[in-house]
Design goal:
The chain has helices at about 5-20, 30-45, 50-55, 70-85, 95-105, 110-120, 140-145, 155-170, 175-185, 185-190, 195-205, 210-225. It is an all-alpha fold.
Length: about 230
């Protein structure tokens, strides 16, 4: 297969201007590696310029005010990154988790259990509902927690831990209730009059099946990390 020369030109420009525009890493070494991997992905997966631009806005500029070509390439590269990304070992985020744990008084094992259950440590994970990043935060929640880039591990873990800490305080330290609210939303939990783990056990069947499994899964994984 062949790649449109215009597409190749833009890929080369992205490499020499700023490396991978979606990665927090900006060193020449890393940008070169990322570029090579993305280019290889284009060649082996048969991506074409028309496929990459099919979802672009019709106007000459993107919603962000960027030239349409840059907007299109940015979105295409992120799509490729998400598809080919291999989750990092949990240990690579230990320092970030420990710091967030101390700041917000949430056990590090609980934070790690949430990350594992939410995204399996895939920093580029996006759910069907639009939740993003390691701790799978919705955009509105992320913004309220001060997150500008949900795919940045430090921001996502900080924001997710801060949000989880608030839920733990709201429900008096009852972890199971806080986790149910993290998954289903505090509004749904509150409407059922659930404030304690005992009340959650009584009314768990009234929550979505996903939430029921989620609470059990996170607590089980936390216990495994503690042992």
């Amino acid at each position: 297969m062949s790649i449109d020369p215009r597409l190749m030109t833009q890929l080369l420009r992205l490499q020499f201007q700023s490396g991978d525009p979606l990665s927090p890493r900006s060193s020449k070494e890393n940008s070169g590696d990322d570029f090579s991997a993305l280019l290889e992905s284009l060649l082996t997966k048969g991506e074409t310029a028309s496929a990459l631009t099919s979802a672009a806005p019709a106007s000459g500029n993107s919603p962000l005010g960027l030239p349409l070509s840059a907007y299109t390439m940015n979105g295409a590269l992120h799509s490729l990154q998400q598809r080919r990304y291999t989750a990092s070992p949990s240990s690579s985020y230990d320092t970030i988790v420990e710091e967030a744990s101390e700041r917000h008084e949430v056990e590090p094992e609980l934070i790690k259990a949430v990350i594992q259950s939410e995204s399996s440590y895939n920093r580029y994970a996006v759910s069907s509902a639009g939740a993003k990043g390691l701790m799978q935060l919705m955009d509105e929640t992320g913004r309220s927690m001060g997150i500008n880039d949900p795919f940045d591990p430090a921001q996502n873990i900080e924001g997710g831990t801060r949000y989880l800490s608030g839920l733990l305080r709201k429900y008096g330290g009852h972890e199971a209730v806080a986790l149910a609210a993290y998954n289903a939303g505090p509004g749904r939990v509150d409407r059922l009059g659930i404030r304690t783990d005992a009340e959650l056990n009584e009314k768990l069947h009234l929550l979505p099946a996903e939430t029921q499994k989620y609470v059990s899964k996170v607590l089980e994984r936390k216990q495994q990390l503690v042992l």
